Structures
1.
Amino acid sequence: MHLVSLARLTHIFIQYGYLAVFIGLLAEGAGIPLPGETLLLIASALASRRTGLNIGWIALIAFCTTSAGDNIGFYVGRSGGQALLDRYRRKLHLGPRSLQRGQDFITKHGALGVFCARFIAGLRVLNGLVAGSLRMNWPRFFLFDILGAACWVTLICGIGYSFGDRLP
């Protein structure tokens, strides 16, 4: 069952513009499972159609909010993340297997895992929470998180903007 249709998401972006990008990506970065790449693709595609949205502003907002959201998630994880993940994982639709995959990925790959997790749906949502709960060094997390965010935002915005005028 789809909670929100493509038409509804398009309407939300046209009506709320940059605020929709800000809230959606900040929430995803903080650990709420939302389809960040879908949100960013739609916003970027709409920018290519001259709807009043500017791709530069979308990219800047996306970069800042994904980085801020991940750091909020990191702080939450550092402050008691394992207990919070255990308590709320069902409400967030995160199974034990997903959590374990996220923990294994960050533990095994460290900073490179933080960078790469940005590109993997599911792990992107857990990135900050897991890194914080595993007591990863914050400056290292921050550096690789912003590098990953910059690459991810550039890629997703580029795809959405480049192909936006070709989508129905």
Note: The helical segments are 6-16, 18-29, 36-48, 55-88, 96-117, 123-133, 138-163.
2.
Amino acid sequence: VQTCALPIFVLKAPAIQFAQKKHAFTQCLMRVTDMYMTSRVRVGSYFLDDIQDFFKENDIFCMENVQFTGKSGFHHNYDFAIQRSKDKPERLCLAINNPSKATMSNALFAWEDTKPFRKADSKLIVFLNDAHGISEGIENGFESYKVNPIRWSKRSDNLDLLTA
């Protein structure tokens, strides 16, 4: 019989900050899970690194790992923010290594919570790692909220959306 000792995570916070801290902790756990899946699927290369390399190769200039506060008071992290230009709006980007209903829901909540504090024409772009397929309905779900899903295998087809 094999046993496995799982790590125990504890978060301490004052009661007044409980909701915000719980939200941040949940986001952290989801990211760690996503990174764990990445290490299993793509040894030696992380999805975010691939996106950064793609941006550099195509002269897409952005800020990395930005955070905005939503109307709920929760803080939401975005992997990239592409600055607005004369012809294009601000574009916030999320990388989703394992597209699922749960990761879609989390991204949509963050966007709907953050959007009221961004310019009216701001957009969300989600990069979906489709190396092992994407569950049915994920792309349509994003599109229903006017979010731009980009399959990683079709990233070059979407340069116009990403460049200034």
Note: Residues 18-41 form the longest helix (24 residues).
